[in-house]
Amino acid sequence: MARVKKGVNALKSRKNILRQTKGYRFGRSTKERQANEAIVHAGAYAFAHRRDKKNDFRRLWNVRISAEVKKSGSSYSKFIGLLKKKGIELDRKVLALLAKDHPETFGRIFKKAAS
Question: How do the domains of the chain map onto residue ranges?
């Protein structure tokens, strides 16, 4: 049985690792061990920050809604409470979009909830 050497496979895996770290600084883009470590950390951060992104957007939506509601002399929490009481089931993403791009429509929703 012929001896199997790993030269081709080792080069292939090294090339793939270094290709993934293109644009990284210092040894992280040229040295295999540092590059591998960088890939592992990058993956962990990417996973965590995909979750954080959802929280960040929800906060942004709340701020946009709050800013528009304050123009009408109310508060965010009272507005959300009124929406729930009236059974208006618009999520914060849609409300924030209306507040930002279509304030007159948002105003009508506010009046409907307040009445």
Answer: 7-114
Q: Using CA atoms, how far apart are residues 96 and 76, in angstroms rounded to an integer?
A: 12
Radius of gyration of the chain (CA): 26
- Angle between helix axes 92-101 and 32-71 (nearest 10 degrees) is 70
CA 66 to chain centre: 21
**Per-residue pLDDT at 24:** 97
Superfamily of domain 7-114: Ribosomal protein L20, C-terminal domain (1.10.1900.20)
Q: Is the pLDDT of residue 5 over 90?
A: no
Please state, in angstroms and rounded to a whole number, the distance separating the CA atoms of residues 43 and 61. 28
CA distances from 17 to 9, 22, 42, 43, 50 (A): 12, 9, 13, 13, 23
